[in-house]
Amino acid sequence: MRTKEELQGVSLLGNKQVQYPTTYSPDLLETFVNKHPDNEYVVTFHCPEFTTLCPMTGQPDFATIIISYIPRERMVESKSLKLYLFSFRNHGDFHEDCVNIIMKDLVHLMNPRYLEVTGVFSPRGGISIFPFANWGDDEHQELVKTRMRERFTIALNNNQ
Q1: What is the pLDDT of residue 123?
Q2: What range defines the domain where residue 51 resides?
Q3: CATH number of the domain residue 97 falls in
């Protein structure tokens, strides 16, 4: 069981008075203590209902966002992540920008060992876009390079 000290800073989970944001809000993100900082393990979030707006037309864009990371001392709390991702609903930015913003916000929040964000955007105008961004600390630079190479390989294989 987690102690109150370990749950300090987690205010959205279980709070029935939570307001859904109408503008991009990285300050919604909350963390909790990783009880296993000596273990390297992967946490993955699959968010199939991500929406944002095209910055030119204002039309909605729909995506699945996949976030995977190797935690260090802090971990992102899932309800705060859900609300944060929801805050993109009225945010006008290109797909690539959204994926990079999410990655940078989470790196800043948690200081993980490694983190990657993939966007699987639904086609609009006959084109699907799948941006991928990753980051790793000094010990995980080979993983950064390997995962980037893998993304290129997947992209090439899907286009043949």
Answers
A1: 93
A2: 41-158
A3: 3.30.1130.10
